Amino acid sequence: MSTQIVATTQISQMLAMQDAMNSRVSETWRENGYEWYRAIWVECAEMLDHHGWKWWKHQEIDVPQVQLELVDIFHFGLSLRLMTGASVDDIASSLTNELATASEETDFKLALEQLASAAVSQREFDAQAFADCMRLMNMNLDELFRQYVGKNTLNFFRQDYGYKEGTYIKVWHGKEDNEVLADVVSKLDSSANDFQQQVYDALAANYPS
């Protein structure tokens, strides 16, 4: 199977999962007027803090946290693309090509600002700028897929365990749920057909009773 076919398949799966998650939050999510573009640029600002930008003090790049923010942004980017009304196949094909067309940008901060700028000024998801950010954080599509499926599954898990009602427990035995998720995903095979179910089951096994 070619790399492009694998990429398109992974993106199609993520689009389907995003639609399912959005529908879980609200069955009318496409008509609700959610500002997905705003979520993107706000996450960009948060990501910049994890990367570091202050020239007057020493800062180290928190790569895992930056990657996690990229995954969150991809959730919003997929939602924006789904809002166009195009078919999942067409969106997946387009994103596959755009994500494979990174520029020669070498400064992560500038790539991130391009991503944020497109969200603010055009209310769009700039997949090429996103690809630049991924590349500069040593993140390929396989890693994006692995982390995306994990975070999407955690989002479903949160809903199932009372997130909207305010009864969900965020800290599990001294660790935030995102940290537990990272531990869980690192031990599983993301190529397994039941990868998502394995993640969910492992989260359930670790959740404080």
Automatic annotation (TrEMBL):
InterPro entries: dUTPase/dCTP_pyrophosphatase. This is dUTP diphosphatase. It comes from Thalassotalea euphylliae. The lineage of its organism: Bacteria, Pseudomonadati, Pseudomonadota, Gammaproteobacteria, Alteromonadales. Gene3D superfamilies: Type II deoxyuridine triphosphatase. It holds the Pfam family dUTPase_2.
